[in-house]
Write a structure and sequence with these properties.
Length: about 375
């Protein structure tokens, strides 16, 4: 009964709340496409019990649609807006990748240098790990590495505690021999960024990206902080909506710990489109794969991983995308200059996969767009 009431409330409040900033020019979609996108999002929300969604569509940096639907907090009945603050989870990795790429361009980090050049007193097993391997999840490291007590995460982890736990976590394979998605690897990249810049990971991102781009609401995750318009996260248990109890606090969170809003991510995409986020040469590299899983030159198809992005090409379409556990995704169709941003507050294991929603929206905007057959679910 409670689940039914929640679904009904979410559906009824799933009205597009479009507010356009006076500082931007909205080209707009055709009315039929605009309505079709709204209908598709509302259908996903109703079918999958997604409480709230924020959505943006951009083409070559020009905003075509920005909308919000449903509830940021079900208990309070608070609506999602473009200023709602979402936990990005692994969408954070593209910011870590961008930071590494900027430092590579400044000759402060070398991709094929060993991790030990930047971090001292590391385990012998890490001696062959390179920065490139960390970026593409080829370092042989485990995914989860944080200390647990009775199989549960602790409430608070200092950066020092996280590093100690990482150093005591057995490697899964010899570095460079296998691929395994690893938050531990991106945590270590955060430490490298801190070592070479003399700043915290969060401060470096703020100085280099967030402040220059006007991303004033983007910040590191702080569980104890009072953050206006913070979105509540949800999960499904036996078909029932529940609070997603991700309440732990980590010291350095280059693998998952950035909070942001739809408006700020619009500014991020526009900064990538106009070259203000990264220099032009770095920007071209940002969407190149550093590791290829598959490549077929005859069909010009590939799938790989790069600077915090999956990179795919098939059917004449080249894309970069990454999703986050909390129900977020950023999809860029590179050759078309099309970007779809989807922020939800239903976790990925419970939902339909935000990459699927993003592709549906992209294909409504561009009906000739073919999805690469091996896209991440």
């Amino acid at each position: 009964m409670i689940a039914a009431v929640t679904r009904a409330a979410v559906f009824l409040i799933g009205i597009c709340l479009c507010t356009i900033s006076t500082a931007e020019t909205l080209i707009g979609l055709s009315q039929s496409v605009d309505l079709a996108v709204d209908a598709r999002i509302n259908a996903y929300m109703q079918d999958s019990q997604i409480p709230g969604v924020a959505l943006a569509v951009l083409e070559r940096g020009a905003l075509r649609k920005a909308a919000s639907y449903g509830l940021a907090n079900v208990e309070l009945g608070a609506a999602v807006t473009r200023q709602s603050v979402f936990e990005l989870a692994s969408v954070t990795k593209q910011f870590t990748g961008a930071a590494v790429l900027r430092l590579v361009g400044e000759d402060r980090i070398a991709l094929d240098a060993p991790l030990t050049r930047y971090l001292e007193n590391t385990p012998e097993a890490w001696s062959a790990i390179t920065i490139r391997q960390l970026l593409v999840h080829r370092a042989g490291l485990a995914h989860r590495f944080e200390e647990k007590h009775h199989d549960s995460f602790l409430m608070d982890y200092s950066t020092e505690n996280m590093l100690a736990s990482a150093m005591h976590t057995p490697m899964q394979s010899e570095s460079g021999t296998d691929w395994s998605y690893s938050d531990q690897g991106y945590f270590l990249l955060g430490l490298v960024i801190e070592k070479v810049t003399g700043q915290t990971y969060a401060q470096y991102l703020t100085d280099q990206f967030f402040t220059p781009l006007g991303m004033t609401a983007t910040r590191r995750l702080e569980q104890a902080a009072v953050i206006p318009r913070r979105v509540a996260g949800y999960t499904l248990q036996d078909g029932r909506l529940e609070n997603d109890r991700r309440d732990w606090q980590f010291g350095q969170m280059a693998h998952f710990g950035i909070l942001s809003t739809l408006d700020d991510l619009i500014r991020w995409d526009q900064g990538l489109a106009d070259g203000t986020a990264l220099p032009e040469m770095a920007l071209q590299t940002f969407f190149d794969p550093l590791y290829l899983f598959q490549e077929d030159p005859a069909t010009e198809s590939l799938i790989g991983y790069g600077y915090g992005w999956w990179i795919e090409q098939a059917n004449g379409v080249r894309v970069a995308h990454h999703s986050g556990y909390t129900g977020t995704v950023l999809l860029r169709v590179l050759d078309r200059g099309l970007t779809v941003i989807i922020l939800t507050n239903l976790d990925q294991p419970s939902g339909p996969g935000t990459i699927n929603i993003a592709w549906d929206v992209a294909q409504l905007v561009d009906p000739d767009l073919a999805r690469p057959q091996w896209s991440e679910d």
